[in-house]
Amino acid sequence: MTLNDRLTALRDLVRKEGFSYEAVFITRPENRAYLSGFTGSFGYLLITATDAILFTDGRYMEQAALQAPGWKVVRLTRPFEQSVIPEIKRLGLASIGFEADHLSYNDYKSWTEKIKETHWLPAPNLGAKLRQRKDAVEVEALRRAVDIASKAFDRMLGVLKPGMTEREAAAELEYGFRKFGADAIAFDTIVASGPRGALPHGQATGKVIEAGELVTFDFGARAAGYNSDITRTVFVGGKGKQPSERQRQIYELVRESQQAGVEAVKPGVAAGEIDKICRDIFEKAGLAEYYMHSTGHNLGREVHEAPFLMPDDANLLEAGMVLTVEPGLYFPEWGGVRIEDDLLVTAGGAEILPGLSKELILL
């Protein structure tokens, strides 16, 4: 899908949904980049049935012209609305739909008070709806982000040992992202060792990783604007230590749940059904209370995109979505286990993007 195709798809969506506004005003960075190709850190889009205008400041004028061919690029000067209002008046717009989940109340007041002849109407996140299904270019970027993260994780395992701190392990992992070509980290790397593994979002600390502990790593790389999101739990041995029976049992139960979820992913299945399949395995084992988050989410320019694999979510999976499946169990004062893969939904099921083994890794 070309950038022009995406713009056409947005206009078609506005018509299909029956929205009354004459233009859409885009402020969310992910939607701005998706629709225009412009990746600078600041700017707005104003899109009508026939016009496509990109507003940005002086830092990005040349970049915008290169990345967004076919768009009218207008330079912003402070106050920013004073650069946009002339274009709104030139187009004679009586109504504009704005991203109500992104534009702040203060900005909304400022805009509406300075151009009273135009009605500003709250619009849903139309870009997010368009971004649910990935085209071939997007899938390739996601494959690269997964490949980079996987290589970085393998590299980090080669130096991980008892006595390292969680922060040191995270630093080794993030260095690998850059070494293998990532543009950035997708999110703050999670490293949770031993009892801290009970924290699903336990960001790396100065805690020393001890021999005999399970360590959960949740990590992702960003490539060409797209994010990977992978989780693995490993056993750090040393001093002759081997995993305890409970550590192995909990790990295998999580792996069984995660694999069941992966195998259930296919077009037409409700997002909530994947969550139920994973959750039922923990329920049968009498451990459902130790599973306290949803099973996954769509993935792309944002790490967390709709639909979400959560209880009772009736949204149907579609070919072209890229999803995470990430069940886990977390026990206070003991630790936890989570396993997560990134999957491309295909016409016949799902493909795990190039990734890592799900056997318990023993170091």
Note the main attributes of this structure.
single chain, 363 residues, alpha+beta, Creatine Amidinohydrolase, Chain A, domain 1, Creatine Amidinohydrolase, 2 domains, 6-stranded mixed β-sheet, 4-stranded mixed β-sheet, 10 helices, 35% helix
Describe this structure in words.
By secondary structure, this protein is of the alpha+beta class. The chain folds into 2 domains: 3-130, 3-Layer(aba) Sandwich (Creatine Amidinohydrolase, Chain A, domain 1), CATH 3.40.350; 136-362, Creatinase/methionine aminopeptidase superfamily (Creatine Amidinohydrolase, Alpha-Beta Complex), CATH 3.90.230.10. The protein is 35% helix and 23% strand. It contains 10 helices and 20 strands. The strands form 6 sheets. Strands 4-3-2-1-5-6 form a 6-stranded mixed beta sheet. Helix 7 (136-157) packs across helix 8. It is elongated.
Quick rundown:
The chain is of the alpha+beta class and 363 residues long.
Please mark out the parts with pLDDT under 50 across 5 or more consecutive residues, or reply none.
Answer: none
Helix content: 25-40%
| Biggest pleated-sheet summary | 6 strands, mixed
CATH class annotation of the largest domain: Alpha Beta
Overall geometry comes to elongated
Helices and strands in order:
Blueprint: H1 3-17, E1 23-26, H2 29-36, E2 44-48, E3 52-56, H3 61-67, E4 72-75, H4 81-91, E5 95-99, H5 105-114, E6 119-123, H6 126-130, H7 136-157, H8 166-179, E7 184-185, E8 190-193, E9 213-219, E10 221-223, E11 226-227, E12 230-236, H9 245-264, H10 271-284, E13 296-298, E14 305-309, E15 322-325, E16 328-331, E17 335-338, E18 341-346, E19 349-352, E20 361-362
Parallel strand pairs: 1-5, 3-4, 5-6, 12-20
Antiparallel strand pairs: 1-2, 2-3, 7-10, 8-9, 9-12, 10-11, 13-14, 15-18, 16-17, 18-19
Helix pairs in contact: 7-8, 9-10
